[in-house]
Specification:
Blueprint (H helix, E strand, L loop, with lengths): L21 E9 L9 H14 L3 E10 L10 H13 L4 E4 L5 H11 L2 E4 H12 L3 H16 L7 H4 L1 E2 L10 E2 H36 L4 E6 L5 H9 L16 E6 L5 E6 L9 H6 L1 H8 L3 E7 L5 H14 L3 H6 L2 E5 L6 H13 L4 E3 L8 H13 L3 E8 L3 H10 L1 E7 L3 E8 L1 H11 L3
Parallel strand pairs: 1-2, 1-3, 3-4, 7-9, 7-10, 10-11, 11-12
Antiparallel strand pairs: 5-6, 8-9, 13-15, 14-15
Helix pairs in contact: 1-4, 4-5, 5-7
Length: 443
């Protein structure tokens, strides 16, 4: 068993004040688990971090070895009895199971242990419910929560078993509470989906407006707590909530960023990914993650100091592939190796040497100290320039509108003026080269 050590653990205590309930965190470890590159101990640590993120007071935690899950209770009879004694001795109010529970398993464990039992999906839903701030984020959380809750309406709580009397003139059996709950949930889900479709249309209008500007979009993605928001704040001098907590950022945040070349880009900070992300949340947050699909450059921020950084990398790649970014994953994302300030000198030297040898673009940096951030910006600048055309044009000095258009749409690399013309060398997107030709009737 692992007894939490308060604020020394990753997650730093609670997210918003005093703990709200005494919790026991259990990670059921199947024999096949080691094959995916993750140790049961690290999975338990991550689950503790999730529990701390919603201010649970984790008083005990344990990895429970399983040969195979039991359909009725997940754990064997002896384990259920032993944990029940632990729950009673420690006055546990909530047991967190770091895995998926069927409705029947959840009901039976709550009966056996006489306390609240939640699984990994419910825990993550609670975190998302606390952190979502925008209207879209709140709607997406509610949709995911209701979808999850609808599958749980099989419990034998007395209020779900009672029959409500129907209208006397209709006769026949009344409508049970469980049927009423299902109908109400279904009605609310339909309403939320309509509201979300409206929000998505509004977001698409914003995207269309950005395309007309147009500023390239650079999206930060990565495993939760990899340091995306800290890097976002460092690069944009913004004040996005960034704390050593899992899922510190849920709602997408976008800021303009000026590069050394003078080119402007839009930097987007997105929700962090996690292993075994509930399917309800992947579907519900697809509109938010579509910011990644619209990005010109995807920057994968990794916590290189984490012992399972490679497994986390694979988890992020799987989500990106599910979103339709398989080509970007195969050809190579712009990879940021964050938190090098936490490495020993020997580990840091090895990382720097590995990035120098790699065929992929990898930039070691520390978002906390700022080390390596300039190298990242220079790399982004180069990536954006790639695929642009350099053209030489002569514009009449009296044609101020076209000159302003060139400065706003492209990168003016050089300019010399004579009495009548401005002679410019400009880097432009191929589409803008065509627009310039149309504007001037050919170069």
């Amino acid at each position: 068993m692992v007894a939490p050590q308060g604020d020394t653990r990753e997650g730093g205590g609670t997210s918003n004040g005093a703990p709200i309930g005494r919790a026991l965190v259990l990670h059921p470890a199947l024999q096949s688990e080691m094959a995916n590159g993750r140790s049961p101990r690290s999975r338990l640590e991550e689950a503790i971090g999730l529990a701390l993120a919603i201010s649970l007071d984790v008083v005990e935690s344990e990895v429970v070895r399983l040969v195979e899950p039991r359909p009725a209770t997940l754990f064997g009879k002896g384990t259920v009895g032993r944990i029940g004694q632990l729950v009673e001795a420690l006055a546990i109010e909530v047991v967190v199971i770091d895995g998926a529970l069927t409705p029947v398993q959840q009901r039976n464990l709550e009966r056996a242990w006489k306390c609240k039992v939640i699984d990994r999906t419910a825990l993550i839903l609670e975190i998302f419910g606390e952190r979502a701030r925008t209207r879209e984020g709140r709607l997406q959380v509610e949709l995911a929560h209701l979808t999850y809750q609808r599958s749980r309406l099989v419990r034998s709580w007395t209020h779900l078993e009672r029959q409500r009397g129907g209208f006397g003139f209709l006769g026949g059996p009344g409508e049970s509470q469980i049927e009423i709950d299902r109908r109400l949930i279904g009605t609310r889900i339909t309403k939320i989906k309509k509201e979300l479709s409206s929000v998505v249309r509004t977001r698409e209008l914003h995207r269309a407006a950005r395309r007309r500007v147009p500023f390239p979009v650079v999206a930060l993605v990565g495993y939760t707590n990899a340091g995306k928001s800290t890097l976002f704040n460092r690069l944009t001098r913004a004040s996005v909530f960034a704390e050593d907590l899992l899922f510190a950022t849920l709602d997408p945040t976008m800021r303009a960023l000026k590069l050394r070349s003078g080119r402007s880009v839009i930097l987007s900070d997105t929700v962090g990914f996690i292993s075994d992300l509930p399917t309800q949340l992947v579907a519900a947050f697809r509109a938010t993650l579509e910011e990644v699909l619209e990005a010109d450059i995807v920057v994968h921020v990794r916590d290189i100091s984490h012992p399972e950084t490679e497994a986390q990398k694979d988890d992020v790649h799987q989500v990106l592939i599910a979103l339709g970014l398989s080509r970007e994953v195969e050809e190579g994302l712009l990879e940021v190796l964050n938190k090098i300030d936490l490495l020993s000198p020997e580990e840091r030297s090895a990382i720097v040497a590995a990035t120098a040898r790699s065929n992929r673009t990898m930039i070691p940096l520390s978002a906390l100290t700022g080390e390596g951030c300039e190298a990242l910006l220079e790399c982004v600048d180069r990536e954006i320039s790639r695929g642009h055309d350099v053209v030489e044009v002569d514009i009449s000095l009296s044609d101020g509108k076209t000159l302003a258009w060139l400065y706003s749409r492209g990168e003016v690399m050089s300019r010399t003026d004579d009495d009548e013309y401005a002679h410019l060398r400009v880097r432009l997107d191929p589409a803008d080269v065509a627009r310039l030709e149309h504007r001037r009737g050919g170069l």
